[in-house]
C-alpha cells in the first residue's frame, strides 16, 4: 500500500508541498506548489527559474521571437538567437524589431507619432526634441517601459484633494475606501475640487512624451457637465488643460469611465492652449502638478481609481522605443543634448538645457559649462598662474588661495560677486562648494553633522523613480518615495498584504483567502497565516479539525517508523496490492455473472414485449381498414347530398327567379323611357327661357308713345 504522510523535515520538500509518500527509493513529495517539480520540489518547471532550491520560481518571460525557447538559467537569462541580445532576448543592437528570424535590418530609425514604435513611414515620425539643439535623433537603447501607477489597494498613495489653486476647502471630505479600493472626494460647495498626483508622477517626465495618462473616474450627483479644465498639467511656467468630453454633453452618473489622454501637442490630444512640440516636452521635463477634477457642482461626489502614467527607465524589460538619442552638433553633449561640451558654456546661465552653448572665452580653452567662469587665473595673462586646486585671490595681492572644494578640484571666481565656485564636483555631489549630495546620493561631505562622509548612492533596491526629485534623504540616505508597494528606510520591506523573498524583487500581493486566513499579511515566501481548519499557501484549502490531532499524531509516529522500514513497508505494500488484486478479480467475475443474468432476463422481457407489440400492431391495422371503409362511404354520401342540393337550386332559379328578373328588366325600360321624356321637356323649357331673355334685352329702356300692337 501507498501511505500519504504530512510533509516534515524527513520529506525535504523545501516548503513547496504539504504531503509526501514512500516508495522503494524513499520518501517523495506530492503536489508540488509554486511552479516547482522533482522528488523534493527542488526544481522549477519549464519556463520558470530560481537561484536556489526553496526560492520562489518566477517566470523566465523569454521573448518568443528572439529566444531559442522558454527555458532560462538560474539568473533569468534566456538563450537568444543569433544577433539578438538582452536577458529576455528582446533587443537588437541597432534598435531594429525582433522577429522570428532574429534582428531585421532597420531601414529607417524613426519614432512613430501614433505608437512611439519604429516605423518606415516618414509622415508618422515624431519630431526630435533634443532641447532644441538638433533635429536628428534615433531610438535610444537600454530603456524599457515603466508604468507609474496608483491602484489604491492599501491607501491613498500620496494623492490629496484641493482646489485648482491648491487650497483646502472646509466643506470637502476626502478619504480612501478600503472596500472599493479607490479615492472618494465629496464637496458641498460649487467650487471644483481636484485630486493632486503625488511626487512619483512629477519632476522630469520627459520620457512620457507621446505616451498616455489614464485613469478611471465615477461621478455621482452634481451638475456633471465637462469643463475646459477637467485635467490640468503644469510645469516650467506652462499650463495645459483638457476636458473629460464634449462640453455639450453630461457625464454619466454612477458609471465608472476610463479616460485616456495622450501627452503631446497634437490637436487630437485636445490640450489647450496648443503648445509647440518643444514647449510641451519642456513642460513634461519640469512637471510640477497633475490635477484631475473630482467634483462637478454643489454636493458633487467623485471616485478616482486605476491611474497610470506610461514612462520609461533604464534597465531590462520591454523596450521603450520612443525614447530618443540625439545626434548633437558641436558644442553639445548628452543623450538629449542637455549639456555643453568641454570648451563651451551657456550663453544665458541659469536658463537650463535649452539655453545655447557658446565657446569659452578663457585663455586655457576651458571654462565652467554653466556659468562660463574660467578655471584658476588663466583668463588674466599678466597675473601669476595658480596650480590646479587653487585660485587667484584679488583681495590679497593676487595670491593663490586653495579652492574650498574636494581635494584636487579646480575652482573659479564669479565676476562681480567674487564668489568662489567649484568647477567640477565629484559624482554624487553638487553645490557651489560641492557641499551637498546630489539627488539619489547621501552623505555629509563637509562634516556639518559629524565626521565627513563622502556622498554615496542611496540604497533603495530599485524601488524608487530615479527621475523624481527628493527620492531619498540627502543626509541619512532614507528612501522617501518607495514604489511597487515597498516601504522601509531602504524600500527593503513590503507593505502589509505584500511580500518578496529578496529586497531587490518587486512586492507581490499575498492574496490571502479572507475566509481561511487570520489576516492579509504573509511571510517572505507568500505563506499566509491560516485559521484552524485551513491550509495551503493562500489558506484556501480545508484541513482536518483539531479533534483529528490524535490521529495525525499516530500517523506522524508511524511515518517515522516507515522511514527505517522502507523495505519492509514495500513488501507489505506489494503483498497487500496482490491480495487486493485477487479480491478485485473475484469481485469483477461475480459482477460479470450478475450482469450476464440480468442481460438474459432483459432479452426474455424484450421477446415478450415483441410478441405483444406484434399483436397490437395487427389490431391497429384492422382498425385502420375499418376507418378507411367508413370514410369512403361518408364521402359517397356527401357527394350525393351535394348533387341533389345543386339540382334543386337550379330548378328554383328557372321557376322563380328568372320570371322575377324579366319583370324587373321591363320596369327598368319603362323608367328609362319616362326619364328620357322628362329630359326632352326640360330642354324645351330651357330653349324658351333663352328666347325670352333675348326679347327682354331687345326692349329699350324708358317710356315711349308706341301704338299698341293689339288691335282695338
TrEMBL record:
The record ties this protein, via PANTHER family, to: LAMININ SUBUNIT GAMMA-1 (PTHR10574:SF270), NETRIN/LAMININ-RELATED (PTHR10574)
For this chain, the annotated S-S bridges are 60-72, 80-89, 482-491
Sorted alphabetically, the Gene Ontology cellular component annotations on this record are:
basement membrane
Q: Which organism is it from?
A: Sinocyclocheilus anshuiensis
Q: Does the keyword Signal apply?
A: yes
Which stretches are transmembrane? Answer: none
Alphabetical keyword list: Basement membrane, Coiled coil, Disulfide bond, Extracellular matrix, Glycoprotein, Laminin EGF-like domain, Repeat, Secreted, Signal
Q: Which residues form a coiled coil?
A: 617-681
SMART domains given in the database record: EGF_Lam (SM00180), LamB (SM00281)
Subcellular location per the Swiss-Prot or TrEMBL entry? Secreted, Extracellular space, Extracellular matrix, Basement membrane
Domain named Laminin EGF-like is located at 60-105, 458-509
CDD domains in the record: EGF_Lam
The name on file for this protein is Laminin subunit gamma-2-like
What gene, per UniProt, encodes this protein?
A: LOC107678924
GO terms in the biological process aspect are:
animal organ morphogenesis; tissue development
Domain Laminin IV type A, chain residue ranges per copy: 154-325
Q: Which superkingdom heads the taxonomic lineage of this protein's source?
A: Eukaryota
A Pfam family per the record? Laminin_B
Amino acid at each position: 500500500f501507498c501511505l500519504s504522510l504530512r510533509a516534515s523535515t524527513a520529506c525535504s520538500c523545501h516548503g513547496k508541498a504539504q504531503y509526501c509518500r514512500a516508495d522503494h527509493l524513499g520518501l517523495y513529495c506530492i503536489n508540488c506548489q509554486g511552479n516547482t517539480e522533482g522528488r523534493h520540489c527542488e526544481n522549477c518547471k519549464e519556463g520558470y527559474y530560481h537561484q536556489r532550491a526553496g526560492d520562489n520560481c518566477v517566470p523566465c518571460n523569454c521573448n518568443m521571437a528572439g529566444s531559442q525557447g522558454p527555458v532560462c538559467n538560474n539568473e533569468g537569462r534566456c538563450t537568444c538567437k543569433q544577433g539578438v541580445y538582452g536577458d529576455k532576448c528582446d533587443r537588437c543592437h541597432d534598435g531594429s524589431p525582433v522577429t522570428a528570424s532574429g534582428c531585421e535590418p532597420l531601414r529607417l530609425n524613426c519614432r512613430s507619432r501614433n505608437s512611439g514604435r519604429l516605423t518606415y513611414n516618414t509622415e508618422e515620425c515624431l519630431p526630435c526634441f533634443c532641447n532644441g539643439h538638433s533635429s536628428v535623433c534615433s531610438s535610444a537603447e537600454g530603456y524599457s517601459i515603466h508604468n507609474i501607477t496608483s491602484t489604491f489597494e492599501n491607501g491613498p498613495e500620496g494623492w490629496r484633494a484641493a482646489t485648482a489653486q491648491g487650497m483646502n476647502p472646509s466643506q470637502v471630505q476626502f478619504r480612501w475606501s478600503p472596500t472599493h479600493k479607490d479615492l472618494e472626494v465629496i464637496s458641498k460647495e460649487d467650487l471644483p475640487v481636484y485630486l493632486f498626483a503625488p511626487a512619483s508622477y512629477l519632476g522630469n517626465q520627459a520620457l512620457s512624451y507621446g505616451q498616455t495618462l489614464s485613469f478611471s473616474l465615477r461621478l455621482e450627483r452634481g451638475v456633471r457637465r465637462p469643463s475646459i479644465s477637467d485635467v490640468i498639467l503644469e510645469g516650467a511656467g506652462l499650463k495645459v488643460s483638457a476636458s473629460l468630453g464634449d462640453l455639450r454633453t453630461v457625464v454619466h452618473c454612477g458609471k465608472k469611465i476610463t479616460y485616456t489622454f495622450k501627452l503631446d501637442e497634437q490637436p487630437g490630444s485636445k490640450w489647450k492652449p496648443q503648445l509647440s512640440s518643444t514647449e510641451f516636452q519642456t513642460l513634461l521635463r519640469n512637471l510640477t502638478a497633475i490635477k484631475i477634477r473630482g467634483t462637478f457642482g454643489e454636493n458633487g461626489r467623485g471616485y478616482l481609481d486605476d491611474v497610470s502614467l506610461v514612462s520609461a527607465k533604464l534597465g531590462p524589460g520591454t523596450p521603450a522605443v520612443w525614447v530618443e538619442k540625439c545626434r548633437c552638433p558641436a558644442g553639445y553633449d548628452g543623450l538629449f543634448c542637455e549639456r555643453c561640451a568641454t570648451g563651451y558654456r551657456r550663453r544665458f546661465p541659469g536658463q537650463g538645457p535649452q539655453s545655447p552653448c557658446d565657446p569659452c572665452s578663457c585663455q586655457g580653452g576651458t571654462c565652467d559649462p554653466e556659468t562660463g567662469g574660467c578655471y584658476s587665473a588663466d583668463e588674466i595673462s599678466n597675473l601669476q598662474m595658480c596650480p590646479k586646486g587653487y585660485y587667484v585671490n584679488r583681495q590679497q595681492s593676487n595670491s593663490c588661495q586653495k579652492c574650498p572644494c574636494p581635494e584636487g578640484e579646480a575652482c573659479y571666481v564669479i565676476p562681480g560677486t567674487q564668489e568662489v565656485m567649484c568647477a567640477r564636483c565629484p559624482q554624487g555631489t553638487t553645490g557651489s562648494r560641492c557641499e551637498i549630495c546630489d539627488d539619489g546620493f547621501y552623505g555629509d561631505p563637509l562634516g556639518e553633522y559629524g565626521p565627513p562622509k563622502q556622498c554615496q548612492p542611496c540604497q533603495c533596491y530599485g524601488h524608487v523613480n530615479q527621475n523624481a526629485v527628493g527620492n531619498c534623504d540627502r543626509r541619512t540616505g532614507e528612501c522617501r518615495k518607495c514604489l511597487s508597494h515597498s516601504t522601509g528606510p531602504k524600500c527593503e520591506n513590503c507593505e502589509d498584504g505584500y511580500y518578496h523573498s529578496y529586497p531587490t524583487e518587486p512586492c507581490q500581493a499575498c492574496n490571502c483567502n479572507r475566509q481561511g486566513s487570520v489576516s492579509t499579511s504573509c511571510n517572505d515566501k507568500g505563506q499566509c497565516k491560516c485559521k484552524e481548519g485551513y491550509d495551503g499557501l493562500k489558506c484556501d484549502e480545508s484541513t482536518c479539525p483539531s479533534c483529528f490531532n490524535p490521529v495525525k499524531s499516530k500517523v506522524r509516529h508511524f511515518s517515522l517508523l516507515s522511514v527505517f522500514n522502507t523495505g519492509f513497508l514495500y513488501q507489505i505494500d506489494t503483498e497487500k496490492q496482490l491480495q487486493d488484486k485477487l479480491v478485485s478479480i473475484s469481485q469483477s467475475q461475480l459482477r460479470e455473472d450478475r450482469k450476464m443474468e440480468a442481460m438474459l432476463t432483459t432479452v426474455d422481457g424484450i421477446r415478450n414485449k415483441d410478441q405483444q407489440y406484434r399483436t397490437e400492431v395487427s389490431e391497429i391495422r384492422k382498425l385502420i381498414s375499418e376507418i378507411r371503409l367508413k370514410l369512403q362511404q361518408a364521402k359517397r354520401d356527401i357527394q350525393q347530398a351535394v348533387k341533389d342540393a345543386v339540382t334543386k337550386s337550379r330548378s328554383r332559379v328557372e321557376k322563380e327567379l328568372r320570371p322575377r328578373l324579366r319583370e324587373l328588366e321591363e320596369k327598368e325600360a319603362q323608367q328609362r323611357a319616362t326619364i328620357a321624356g322628362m329630359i326632352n321637356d326640360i330642354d324645351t323649357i330651357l330653349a324658351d327661357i333663352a328666347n325670352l331673355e333675348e326679347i327682354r334685352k331687345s326692349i329699350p329702356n324708358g317710356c315711349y308713345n308706341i301704338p299698341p300692337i293689339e288691335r282695338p
